[in-house]
Specification:
The complex is a heterodimer. Chain A is of the alpha/beta class. Chain A has helices at residues 2-39, 102-110, 142-148, 160-163, 170-182, 186-199, 205-208, 218-230, 248-265, 276-282, 300-305, 310-317, 322-325, 363-367, 386-390, and strands at 60-71, 74-86, 91-95, 118-128, 134-136, 153-156, 236-240, 268-273, 285-290, 293-299, 373-376, 379-381. In chain A, strands 6-7-8-3-9-10-12-11 form an eight-stranded mixed beta sheet, with helices on both faces. In chain A, strands 2-1-4-5 form a four-stranded antiparallel beta sheet. The model of chain B is unreliable at 1-14 (pLDDT under 50). The chains are: A alpha/beta, B alpha/beta.
Amino acid sequence: MDTQGGVLQALARQARFLTTALRRLAAGARIFQLGHRMGDPMQETEFVTMPDSGAGYPVLRVRNLKTYFDTDRGLVKSVDGVSFDIAPGETLAVVGESGSGKSVTSLSIMALLDKAHGKVVDGVMAFRSKDGRTQDLRVASEAEMRKIRGNDISMIFQEPMTSLNPVFTVGDQIAESVVLHQKLSRPAARKAAIDMLKVVGISAAEKRVDDYPHQMSGGMRQRVMVAMALSCRPTLLIADEPTTALDVTIQAQILDLMKRLQREIGMSILFITHDLGVVAEVAERVAVMYGGLIVEEGDVVSVLTRPKHPYTIGLLNSVPGARRRSGEEEGPKRLYAIPGNVPDPRNRPAGCLFAARCTHAIDACRAEMPPLLDTGGGQAARCIRWQEVAS
Amino acid sequence: MSTAGDAAMVGPDADKPLLSIRNLKTHFAIGGGLLRPKGGAVRAVDDVSFDISRGEVVGLVGESGSGKTTIGRSILRLVKPTGGEVVFDGVDVAALTAAEFQPYRRRMQFIFQDPYASLDPRKSVGAIIGEALSIHRLGTRAERPGRITHLLEQVGLGADAMARYPHEFSGGQRQRIGIARALAVDPEFIVADEPVSALDVSVQAQIVNLIQDLQTSLGLTMLFVAHDLAVVEHLCDRVIVMYLGRIMEIAPKAALYSRPRHPYTKALLSAIPRVDPTIRKERILLEGDIPSPINPPSGCVFRTRCPYAIDACADVVPPRVTVGENHVSACIRTELT
């Protein structure tokens, strides 16, 4: 009896597994069709053929990027129409809380999405590589992306321990991309790795090159990640919360290092973070994301000192000590807290996504999604009441 | 440093402190297993003394490896201290047997950092909070649902939360459940270990306000362990700065943030990124990493990274010097301002 029961149970498990697998396959097919349907209109193609030369043109121009995930519990529109430019040598910070779509934006650019579930369904990501060619990363083949990743665009992640391979020495891991993209010999690549370790400030680089990641501290591992990312002198560095796991004194070291190398190499940085203090430290321009959309953007001083969108204002006010800095003698007794929670991404309301938590919301806010409105001085906010809100 | 002298220096002028930590040491032995030879010890907490008065909120700050979490855990005996005294309400609880300590577990509670890992996923919220009540035999079985409802309302959750499971809640809501569990047994003293570090900024503000409201209305005494100096500045009366298992500086909040005296505190405060990009402040950039706690530097443990270190810093563990009212700093270079 018992064995029979066991066999039956195992069969039932198998059947469940198969059903889930089939459902996921179907979901994949659905999202693929969706992508084709939405990608058809060619109204955005002008950006793909932007001129190849001229320093004034952005390194990366993203237009109307939409990345959707098909999950068991419904379609999640993680990124739902995001547009931005990054100029040569510029740092753009994308800030937002968990689930705002900031990391998915960066994974879409790098074509690193989990393809079984997620797909870029619309938009253009026009990237100008080192050789001056401009191409749309959304339609680039996997072979083309392999040439771009690590060479033209590099990425640093939050957790240096999980992004480094524990079974290879750090020297091998830095040398890998140099061998691949610059076709250097092994000994030359090893020397390049040692040089990079020196550049990122690791002492005794000749010895440390043979260390494994676990032999290093968190700060040193993040320096190794920076060395790997910059070994081929990329045009664009995507840094996804690179200092979040580090202590403040080590964070200060890494941010200083990134700024120094940016000046030397002249690369652009897309800096993804939730920390407004880090934004103030590194960025020239800021895009604030909420619910898969940019709700405010502009230069860093304008956005952080004269925010126009109620969400940005709320976020800045909820940082401890924020209001004392703005002139009040004694700090507030209580922190400002934005009421409510982020809306469920599977069931987003019509109109402004922030309306349910906003003290300024009127009926018109809930009727239709507000466009990104120019508020002057190169700043824009997705709020129809920005004039009342800001005054 | 003498015990009596410490008490005079760190104790605020109120009545007898609720908690007095005296020369607390918590070391973790390395190796000693079947295949690994017995090595040295990680000196996570090394000769730490401080007091907390009733109703006071004291911040304990420092970087990873400074020993701040281990102090909190040692006080509540979640790890066993190697030496020293933990005097709670006149009794050295570090010397008690497990059975003798049991009543003190009701009076001292812990709020954990990770609201995902610290709640049993197989228990409903009602069962999680109810367990605390039944262990300490508080109230009758019939009274408990009412008590749990009241606790949930106190932390801003509805009574309907009782029948639901932890996975149904967001990070901020889970932290509210963790707080309700800690408050269930009417504690006098709470160790909050990085309770808002894992939360988003807007949710963090909600939980900080909740902790502040509850502390005031219930008159709780609290040790708030954190690495975020801005949250500590907002919430605490007094701040203890730790580095590599030792106390560097203790000061009332206002004095610490406006006029830090220890070089480490100065560097730590200067490293916090400020939200206002128009402020260009001078930054003290520390070189290198925190040294190994297995083999800490002689004398002052901070001297290997200190911009002001002199030869004498290697010779003696710096005694605490009173530099202001209730303000002590463990640095021999008192001539530095």
